[in-house]
Amino acid sequence: MVSTALNYVNGTWKASGSGQTKESSNPADLKQEVGFYQNSTAEDLDQTVQAAKEAKKGWSKLTGAERGAFLYKVADIMEQRIDDIATTASKEMGKTLAETRGETNRGIAILRYYAGEGLRKVGDVIPSTDADALMFTTRVPLGVVGVITPWNFPIAIPIWKTAPALIYGNTVVLKPASETALTCAKIIECFDEADLPKGVINFITGSGSVIGQGLAEHPDVNGITFTGSNSVGKEIGKQALSRGAKYQLEMGGKNPVIVAKDADLQLAVDATISGAFKSTGQKCTATSRVFVEAELYDEFKDLLLKKTAELKVGDPLSDSSWMGPCASKAQLDNCMYYINKGVEEGATLLTGGNKILSDEGFYVEPTIFECEDHSQTIAQEEVFGPVIALFKTASIEQSLELANDVEFGLSASIFTTNISSMLSFIKDMDAGLVRINAESAGVELQAPFGGMKQSSSHSREQGEAAKEFFTSIKTVFVK
Ligand SMILES: NC(=O)C1=CN([C@@H]2O[C@H](COP(=O)(O)OP(=O)(O)OC[C@H]3O[C@@H](n4cnc5c(N)ncnc54)[C@H](OP(=O)(O)O)[C@@H]3O)[C@@H](O)[C@H]2O)C=CC1
Ligand SMILES: CCCCCC(=O)O
């Protein structure tokens, strides 16, 4: 039976005032309807924000431990529903079931991490120059936080924004990407069953230009945390700034892998394939450029092509599939645009480049270009699909220079056994995540996450770093 997701407002599931719903479809099975979600209106949004506003005083008065107890309950409930949530995510956006199960477990671990944050210190005692005074800092919540999330991590990202927002005393209005509205609704069902006070967590679906933009503009929304494309993120930042709201943007990436002549060849190839093609390359941390020192280039290229040819592309619900489809027709078209651009601009197509299984879904082959000109479009722009631009370089220094020669700075990897190459990379690579002998994707939940340059608004998510965005510091002086 195809389900219809309702909005969750003030502790109640309710339909949009528009009476309209939109369909969530399966990119791996064009004949399948996954379900429907509310096509909400600005009026629906205002009601949702008012519910969050009404709830914020009571929620912020609870202790961190009391708020944390709710998050532990949500995690326990979610743990009973891993397969349902993961299957829904795979059906909505095409990630393999193994990956969505892993992501659901990651969401559960994030909830438990932030539940524990409710018992950790919030401020510092700072010595005053006045012997009769006491000076210290404390932290207060922002108030109502708007959460706008993308479709590529439909479980982990809504949770890694919502959990810290809640534990630090904020109330939340969550707007998921339309492609993955039902997955997010299943996560909200777990919050509903944990009996959080009404209005603390609210969930509303609908188009980004109405509900997302409405959140960015709403005068009663005190903070906006967004993950998605640069074009949308920049608009949200402008709107939030214009009304004095705090905002946090995590956006695109164009992540390099550098392979030194002294690298472990097998490790470098396996990590490049995983980083570039897992999740069909639809990660902001995905590998899209690979720079290999000349001495190792031919061996690396041959092994990369051999192992890429072994990848099985197919139904994400099948255990035998290694890579699923693009998340939508728009994503497939976007991917084909860049593949055609690569050919037009003279890059050499070494493998892939074609749509496949077209009567079943939005599938594309894992694709590798050999490039010489780093100014080419496929070396500069984010493809957000399974496409690698491969370069031969004369040295580590040249590799590092090219790796930095893009407007993004999210994640970067180097494969080397040379300590000085590793240290130069750590120091000189302009990226928020620098990884040695490990793929460019895969962030741990307890560590700060975020980009440099055009990848981010320069705040950090995850771990203790999230506290900096979801709270404001107060300096207290007592005499
Ligand atoms: N740096 C990072 O951590 C990450 C970055 N990304 C980036 O996100 C992009 C792919 O994700 P995608 O979902 O397509 O990104 P989009 O920017 O298109 O959408 C992201 C979210 O913003 C909403 N939205 C769309 N238009 C507006 C608007 N005018 N105002 C407010 N909100 C709006 C969307 O709603 P709707 O779905 O209804 O359109 C969705 O919920 C890639 O560029 C990728 O690099 C993705 C994940 C992580
Ligand atoms: C927002 C994107 C997160 C990427 C997490 C990863 O690389 O596993």
From TrEMBL:
Per its UniProt record, what Gene3D superfamilies does this chain match?
Aldehyde Dehydrogenase, Chain A, domain 1, Aldehyde Dehydrogenase, Chain A, domain 2
Q: Which InterPro entries match?
A: Ald_DH/histidinol_DH (IPR016161), Ald_DH_C (IPR016163), Ald_DH_CS_CYS (IPR016160), Ald_DH_CS_GLU (IPR029510), Ald_DH_N (IPR016162), Aldehyde_DH_dom (IPR015590), AlphKGSA_gudD (IPR054869)
Q: Which residues form the active site?
A: 250
- GO MF annotations, alphabetized: oxidoreductase activity, acting on the aldehyde or oxo group of donors, NAD or NADP as acceptor
What are the UniProt keywords, alphabetically?
A: Oxidoreductase
Please give the superkingdom of this protein's source: Bacteria
Q: Which residues form the Aldehyde dehydrogenase domain?
A: 13-476
Which family, according to the similarity comment? Belongs to the aldehyde dehydrogenase family.
> What NCBIfam families does the record point to?
AlphKGSA_gudD
Protein's UniProt name: Aldehyde dehydrogenase family protein
UniProt source species: Alkalicoccobacillus porphyridii
